[in-house]
Amino acid sequence: MANTNPLFSTCDFGDEFKAEPLQQARFRVLPPVFQHYGANRSFFGPVKTVKCFEDNTPVKAALEAPGHGAVLVVDGGSSLRRALVGGNIADSAAKNGWAGIVVDGAVRDFAELQLAQVGICALALTPLPTDRQTPGNKDLPVIIQGVPIKPGDWLYADADGIVVSDQPLHTNLNT
Hints:
Glucose Oxidase, domain 1; metal-binding; ribonuclease inhibitor activity; 4-hydroxy-4-methyl-2-oxoglutarate aldolase; disordered N terminus; EC 4.1.3.17; globular; alpha/beta; RraA/RraA-like
């Protein structure tokens, strides 16, 4: 089941961890370079990863499988030349129970992405689809905008930003 309306604030997490060294293994903050494109502007879940460059084959394969409330983090090498997620793939993610997708790269089909009931964050939009020539890898540690992320970490995204932790943070909240 996707976590689509969580009771958390990345700012609250920032307050909680402000005394800790920035970008340490326990709590990390992604730079404010990502835009929200999906219908769900606030999402969280355990991380699964794929790494690919201008070929979304592993992204499509991952999001066509059951997500169980996870967040797919895509290391697209920050490329803005080809879109790694579009409307059809976003629909698959929503139907298969993914909480969100964070793409260190571009996406496309803006109008369709806005309707997809999943969180989607990416660097930018581009109209070009991928060039399926260099399939990537999955389930490995990645570096997103200088921040290390590994499968099994927890990612939280809302209007104020994206944070990553090596353990769930939402259990620490007084709700």
